[in-house]
Amino acid sequence: MECSIRKWKIEDSATLAAILNNKKILDNLRDLPFPYTEKDAVDFIHATLQADENKTYVFAITVDDIPIGSIGVYRKDNIHSQTAELGYYIAESFWGRGAGTSAVKQTCRYIFEHTDIIRIFAEPFAYNTASCRILEKNGFICEGVLRSNAVKNGQIIDMKMYSLIRP
Asked: pTM score > 0.85 for this model?
């Protein structure tokens, strides 16, 4: 499925709240409020629009200009200043249709063409095979398993470390 990436708009807040009011999505992300309210969405969008444009690159993933998810790349600092972390999610109704793969491809291309970042990494939960597959389809290499690396919903879980190096 073809999708596009663009900056978030305040008008997207209701759609964003609807996407994130899904426990199946939230169970694969870092902790966010549940239920996820329109105020939470407005706060997130405001934060992305006010973020340092040299450190934070956050985009709405859209189909026909309607948000179906979000993707972000977050630059690290100090000796890791040319390294950035990738995170993303897709609305459940679009799972398995290629939107995640397309969005990751577009975002990584944008980062490598418009910044000095040389390494993008992602740390999906080890059980999130769909997210791991999206990364692999985009050339990310699994560097290993981060054992007992997070506590999510009261469970200690492993994460995988994936990276993509600037071509």
From this structure: yes
